[in-house]
Amino acid sequence: MNFIWYILIGIVSGFIAGKIMRGGGFGILVNLLVGIIGGVLGGWVFGLLGIATAGILGSLITSVIGAVLLLWIVSFFRKPHNAEL
């Protein structure tokens, strides 16, 4: 049953991070991937800072912050979309 919660938290956090960083979601599978990787990244960063969260809401906040960080880091490696000749 916990596995289902992790999937739901991953989807929701990926969607929220997509809304924050670029104004839209990425689709259910990419949202899930971004949310799961964001959860790992957020947990690592929170651990470095000595911040502990608990429960579903704490997991969601950690995942969203990690997913936003992930999308911010990825944005440095993407080409600009509005390059004109």
What descriptors fit this protein?
Transgly_assoc, membrane, 75% helix, transmembrane, mainly alpha, GlsB/YeaQ/YmgE family stress response membrane protein, cell membrane, 85 residues
Q: Can you characterise this structure?
A:
There is one protein chain. This protein has one domain. It is mostly helical. The model has no long low-confidence stretch (mean pLDDT 83). Helix content is 75%, strand content 0%. Helix 1 crosses helix 3. The longest helix has 22 residues.
Provide the fold topology.
Blueprint: H1 2-22, H2 28-49, H3 55-75
Helix pairs in contact: 1-2, 1-3, 2-3
Mean pLDDT over all positions: 83
Put simply, the count of helices is 3
Distance between the termini: 54 Å
Structural classification: mainly alpha
Helix content: over 70%
Main sheet makeup: none
* Mass-distribution shape: globular
Tell me the fraction of residues in β-strands, as a range. under 5%
Number of domains: 1
Membrane topology: Multi-pass membrane protein
Family: Belongs to the UPF0410 family.
Subcellular location: Cell membrane
Organism: Parabacteroides acidifaciens
Explain briefly what this protein structure is.
With 85 residues, this protein is an all-alpha fold. It is built from three helices and no strands.
